Structure formats: C-alpha cells, structure tokens
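User: Quick sanity check before I run a bigger batch. Here is a single chain. Can you write out its predicted 3D structure?
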Amino acid sequence: MGFVIRRGTRDKPRYYIRYVDVDGGEKSRRVPAKTKAEAERFLHQAETRLMEGRLGMEPKTDAMMTDTLMDEWMMTLTNRDAAGDRGRVNKHVRPAFAGMPLSTLQEIGPVMSWLDGQRRAGDLSSGSIRHNLNLLSRFFSWAIERGYSKVNPVRMIPTGKRPQEAQKRDMPWLADDAQVVSLMNHLPEPINLMFYLGNRSGLRTGELAGLRMADMDYLKDGTIRIRYSYGGPLKEDKGQTGKMKWVPAPSDADDFLGLWLKRRKLQGAKLEDLVFPAPLAPNSMRKRDWHGYRKEFIEDCWAAAKDAHNKKCEKEHHEDRKVDMTWYQATRHSFVTRNLEAGASLDEVSDAVGHSSPGVTRRFYDHHVRRSFSATLTARLGRPEKPAR
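Assistant: Done. Predicted structure follows.
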C-alpha cells in the first residue's frame, strides 16, 4: 500500500505519493493536487496501474501549471544572489507564464513571444532580458531533472536571436573628485561610506555589504581583506572553499571610516560582525537570514542622492557637473578606469578588482590600456637614417 506525503506551507502545500512500483523499487512522485483528497485519487490511480502490471504513474505534465512549479523551483535556489533571482523571477518571468500548463512550453513559440514582449516594452536593457532568459533556462533544467519536462525550449533559440549583453565599455565614470564629495554628502550614513569605499577601492556592492569588522584590521597596511559577498562566498569562490582576496585601501581611510568603526566597537561589534549592518524596523519581530543592506536599497539611495545632486547643480547653473550613471559606474567602473588612465599596470588593476585574469580586464577596458610607451620602443619609430658610404 502507498501513502500520501504533505510538504510545503499551510498556504502552499505540496503533495507527494509514495508506492512500490512493478520493478520492486520505491517511488516518490509529486502530484498536482491542492488537497489531500486529490492526492489520494492520484495514489489510487497509481495503484490501479500497478494491478494492471504497468508503471505506477506517468508524469502528468498537462496538469502541471508553470507558475506553481516555479514556486517550487525558487525554494531550491541557493546561489549567491538567490534573493535577487527570486525577485527577478516574480517580477519578469513568473507572471508571463501564470496559469499556463507546462506542456504548452515544450515548443519555442511561447518563449519567443515572451522575449519579443520584453523587447517591445523597452524598459529593460539587453543584459536584463538576457538574465531573465537564463533564469527561465535554469527553471527548465530543474524541471527536466525531476521529470516534469522533456525539453528546454530556451536551448532551441538560435544564437543570433538571443539577447546580447552590450560590452561594458565607453561608459561614463566619475573623474571629478568634487562630484564624489557632493554625492557622499547626499547619501545617508553608512551608504555614503560604502560608496566611498566602492569608488576608491573598487569593491562590488555585495563585497561592501559583506565586510566584517576583522576585515578592516589591515587598514594600517593599506589593504582591506574581502571574504564575503552579502552573506555568502565571493563571486570568484565557485566551490565555496572560503576563498578571499585583498584590495587596496584608500590612503585617507582612517579619516572617513575611523569614527564609524569606533562606534561599531562601542556598540559591541565582534570580529565577525558586519561593518555596515542594516537596522531592523522597531516593530519587526521577523528574523532575517541576512542582516546587511540589500542591493535594491543601496541603489534606491543612490538614485535619490543623484537626483538631489543634479538639482543642486541646476540651481547653481553648473549643468556640466550633473551625474547620470549607475552605482556600478560610479564605484567599481570608476576605480578601474581612473587607475588605468593614470598608467597603472593591467595586471595590478585586475588583481585589485578580483578579475579571474588580466584578459577579462582587457576585454572591457582595452581602450584605456597602454597610453604611454618606453623610450626604448619610441626611439626606433622614426625615419631610418641613410647608411653611411
């Protein structure tokens, strides 16, 4: 005899049936049931098939709704930016296929219609559309592994029809230190300090949010230790082996960060506590997995500071000082561009930002590399002299 297993939450239950199949092996299958009574009917169906000498149950892809399966898939995400991926799926992917049986997505047509709709809307960049498509592909890979789908329609899309992410080159960057100071003044604390470190040391947003107190003990040596991205491993740490890296610390780091670090120690911050913890609402009793600042909040603060800075520029009739760039462009991208323009070596800059190789840095910043050449090279570039007779 088989039995029904209930999983999930009270609002979103998931039902599985377990039985011994004709080959003698114990099978467990999820069924598209919303109540235990419906799940028991699936179990009865499987037992009937067993009595007829057939396999207990075939995957019922026609009855499986895509959005319901996406909910189950999102619960299994454990990658570094799992929270961001869930938010993107709920905003851009899941609504497009809500109420649609998974069996209708075994062809390329519905996926291409969804892609075309994103392009026509014009509110997403090519990189964002590409990210959404990759998430849909990951969902189908998961569905195939569990027997819910037979094909991944995303893989049917010809290469030329896929959204191409634009090369990150010739983007604006903060070359004026007066603009950096003005933007810091418009950012709330400690987001202004995070912006300062990102602009001066080239840290990613997640690396800024994941800094621990112990990582700042090396400021006197002119370096900062980086071990975390948000609450997880670094982007470069594919195997989650505890990989870390070192980035150059600003020469005036003590002037900007000294008071904040002293305040954190007076608050009782230990070595592995966050440098920049996010406060919880006073009436919130909800426990969170992550107690630092999220990317969305940081970027909202950046947008507000940028608007305030630009309004001040308009009021003072300094239109040329207005800033129109993303947080990434104003921090990490500005760090790389500023140092390459100043003549820093490609290898050194690549190591400082944590690129896997100098080739990655060159691919995006080759137009800033090698602006000057040695006297040995330039001495032999002139017109050759006539040989003496």
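The chain has three domains: 3-58, 66-161, 177-277+293-368.

User: Great, the batch can go ahead then.
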